[in-house]
Every structure is written in structure tokens, then in C-alpha cells.
Amino acid sequence: MVEQIDVDELVGNAIAGDEDALSKLLERFGARLHARVASRTNDRFRSMVSPEDVLQVTFAEAFLRIKSFQPNGPDSFEAWLTRIADHNLIDAIRGLERKKDPPLRKRIAPATSDESYDSLLAGIDGSFTTPSHGAARIEIKPIIDNALDKLPAGYQQVLRLFDMEGKTAVEVGQAMDKSEAAIYMIAGRARKRLAELLGSSSQYFSK
């Protein structure tokens, strides 16, 4: 009971902006999360996806999203953190699986600035595709640029290099000193955040 009260207090403080409290929470649940990721990683990908990479991206996302977290029960924080880690692991494995047969947009680097924006939008889980007939490209690009500027620097860099410039995950990883799997995970989180930021501008896009 005392331990749970301590966790609840730490969660409340973390939501209020106490980074030290969040760090203590991540440290408390880190070992279990590490073990879970290790047990869920297919043998085929163990040499390419390390639990440390998954936790690093997961913890970074936790720091970005903690203020919007809404507790719902005594184990809700750990469940929330686990969902983030699971999604990151899925993004990494999906990216590695698709590596041998990447989508057409990843086989050819965008030739023009306009095409780089189309490539970025096409990567956001199908949420957006091309500018709608009622919106000129000149209207769309500033909206996307504004949304990109609101992302953390690392997220921006991955989207610009990986989705907009058509570089491979290996090349982006070398530029950012991160593993290939980490780039797939960061790209997945970054696309989701970008889609959320563009949501209010969805009238400009056709699906």
C-alpha cells in the first residue's frame, strides 16, 4: 500500500511537470519493461532490436506526453508506458521487415520540394495523402512546416531525412548516431505526433 501511494504521488508530480518524479517512475518500471521487450522480440530480430533502444525511445516519448497522461487506476501508468514500448517495438520490427521491399515512395528519393512534402504526408499512416482540390500547394507547405517546427528536434530530423529526403534508415542512423531500429521507432512516433498536429488542418487534405 505504501509503495502504491508513493507511485501515485510520483505520477501526480510528474504530470505537474516534475521531471525528477518522472525519472524515478521510469527507473522503477524500467527493469520490468526491459524484460518484457526482450521476451517479445522475435529471435530473428534480436541482433537488430535491442531493449535498450526501445526503452530509450519509450522514455523520450514519456517525457513528451506525461502532461497529457490521465491516471485511471493503480497500474495505469505502467500500462501506459508498456503500450508506448509495445508500439515502438512493433514500429521497429515492421520497419525492418519492410526493408527488403520498401514502398515505392521510399525507393526513389523525392526530386522536388513538392514531392518531398507529398512523401512526408504519404507516410503518416494513410491519415493524409495529397492536398485537396481546394487547396494549392503554396497553402499546404507552410502548414506542414509549422507543424514540423513544433516537433522535438530529433523527430524533425528523422522526418526530414527519412521521409522527405528519401534516405534509408541506415543512413539516417549514421547521421544521428542511432541504430536502424531506433530510426524506425522514432519515425513512427514522429509521424503520429505530426498527424495530431495536422489534425486541425485536415480540411486541406484529401484522404
Outline of this structure?
The protein is an all-alpha fold and 207 residues long. The chain is 68% helix and 2% strand.
Query: If classified by CATH, what would the architecture of the largest domain be?
Result: Orthogonal Bundle
Low-confidence stretches: none
**Named CATH topology of the largest domain:** Arc Repressor Mutant, subunit A
* Strand order, largest beta sheet: 1-2
Number of helices: 10
Name the structural class. mainly alpha
Q: State mean pLDDT (0 to 100 scale).
A: 85
Name of the level-1 CATH class of the largest domain: Mainly Alpha
- Spell the H/E element sequence: HHHHHHEHHHHE
| Radius of gyration based on Cα positions | 19 Å
Number of strands: 2
Which strand-content bin applies to the residues? under 5%
Distance between termini?
Answer: 50 Å
Q: State the major sheet.
A: 2 strands, antiparallel
Number of domains: 2
Task: Identify the overall geometry.
Answer: globular
> Percent range for helical residues?
55-70%
From the structure above, extract its key features.
mainly alpha, Rna Polymerase Sigma Factor, Chain: A, Arc Repressor Mutant, subunit A, 2 domains, 68% helix, 2% strand
